[in-house]
Amino acid sequence: QVQLVESGGGLVQAGDSLRLSCAASWRDFSSYAMGWFRQAPGKEREFVAAINRSGDTTYYADSVRGRFTISRDDAKKTLYLQMSSLTPEDTAVYYCASRFESFGSDRYYIKPGEYNYWGQGTQVTVSS
Q1: Which residues of 57-76 are buried (b: 16+ CB within 10 A; e: fewer)?
Q2: Residues 6 or more apart from 60 whose CB is under 8 A from it?
Q3: 3-state secondary structure labels for all residues of the chain
Q4: Residues contacting residue 65 through CB under 8 Å, at least 6 positions apart
Q5: How far is 57 from 118, CA to CA, in rounded Å?
Q6: Which of 1, 41, 43, 99 is deepest in the core (most CB within 10 A)?
Q7: What does DSSP say about strands 92-100 and 32-39: parallel, antiparallel, or unpaired?
C-alpha cells in the first residue's frame, strides 16, 4: 500500500524557519518523482517545489524560490521541505505527492494531476 505521511508543521512567527518531512511507506521510493504543494483556505492547491527521482534536479514556485529547499533521502524513504524566511502568505496546509517513474524517465512535475499519491497534509501557520 502506498502511503505518504507528512510531519513538521506548526505555528511559527514571520521570519522563522521550519522543516517538513514526508515519509513513504513503499520500498522503491527512489523510483518516484516527488513534490510539495500547499493549499490556503479558500484557495486552490498550488505547486511549491518538485524533485526528480534521482534527486539531482529541483524546481520551485516563484513565490518560494530562494527561501525553500526540497530534498530527498532515499535510504530513509523521506522527502523534505526546508522553509526559511517564512511569511504569513506561506500559511497553508502542505501536502507531499509522489509519481512513479518508469524506466528511462527522470523528470520533475509541477501539476497536481501529474501525481498519483498524496499525503494527508500538515498545517503551517505563520503569524505576523
Answers
A1: ebbbbeebeeebbbebebee
A2: 48, 49, 50, 68, 70
A3: CCCEEEECCEEEECCCCEEEEEEECCCCHHHEEEEEEEECCCCCCEEEEEECCCCCCEEECCCCECCEEEEEECCCCEEEEEECCCCHHHCEEEEEEEEECCCCCCCCCCCHHHCCEECCCEEEEEEC
A4: none
A5: 21
A6: 99
A7: antiparallel
